[in-house]
Amino acid sequence: MLFEFLTVREHLDLVCNLKAVDDVKTEIDQILTLTLLTRHQNKPSKDLSGGMKRKLSLGMSLVGKSSVLILDEPTSGLDVDSRRQVWQLIKEVQKSRSIIMSTQHIDEADELASMVCVMSHGKLVVEDTPADIKRKFGVGYSLIIEYNDQQNDNPLDQDPILG
């Protein structure tokens, strides 16, 4: 949750105080650098782009060096460049913390996860590594269109308006 009139730095300061961080200034400076928000630290959150808001929320979750992070679709609604930046941030954080993350993007799971659980209709369908899931279920879809050229009524050749 972001407060629209608090700046990026003020959000991080608030969370630092809630989590009783000892060296608040150092913690905030590290998170601003990690999230690439240093240039935007004095902007109120209402003036941030969607990607910067996501990075701020992620930065707030990093305060206090929790050993486990739970992220719910951290790249939802982001453009491709912002998604890649958040991926890089998550990869950096993974070096020192465990992350449990939900996503609807299989490429994101493939890029970031060491283990993937797939759910369908509220039930666990499969749990495995991304590579083994691709090996078992394949990658993507195949579309095969067959055309019987002995018929003259090929729907692909017909005018959609006149028939």
How would you sum up this structure, described in words?
- The protein is α+β, with helices and mostly antiparallel strands and 163 residues long.
- The strands form two sheets. A two-stranded parallel sheet has the order 1-2. Strands 3-4 form a two-stranded antiparallel ribbon.
- The termini are far apart.
- 40% of the residues lie in helices and 13% in strands.
- It has one domain (8-137): Rossmann fold, CATH 3.40.50.
- Helix 1 packs across helix 2, helix 1 runs parallel beside helix 3 (50-62) and helix 3 (50-62) runs parallel beside helix 4 (80-94).
Output the keywords.
163 residues, Rossmann fold, two-stranded parallel ribbon
Offer a concise description of the structure.
With 163 residues, the chain is an alpha+beta fold. It contains 6 helices and 4 strands; from the N terminus they run αααβαβαββα. It is elongated.
- Class inferred from helices and paired strands: alpha+beta
* Number of separate helices: 6
Q: Which CATH-level-2 architecture?
A: 3-Layer(aba) Sandwich
Write down the overall geometry.
Answer: elongated
Strand order of the largest sheet: 1-2
The helicity comes to: 25-40%
The total of beta strands comes to 4
CATH homologous superfamily - what is it? Answer: P-loop containing nucleotide triphosphate hydrolases
The first-level CATH class is given as Alpha Beta
> What is the N-to-C order of secondary-structure elements (H for helix, E for strand)?
HHHEHEHEEH
CA-CA gap between termini: 54 Å
Instruction: Specify Rg, calculated over alpha carbons.
Output: 23 Å
Mean of residue pLDDT values: 86
CATH names the topology as: Rossmann fold
How would you sum up the major sheet? Answer: 2 strands, parallel
**Roughly what fraction of the amino acids lie in strands?**
5-15%
Domain count: 1
Low-confidence stretches: none
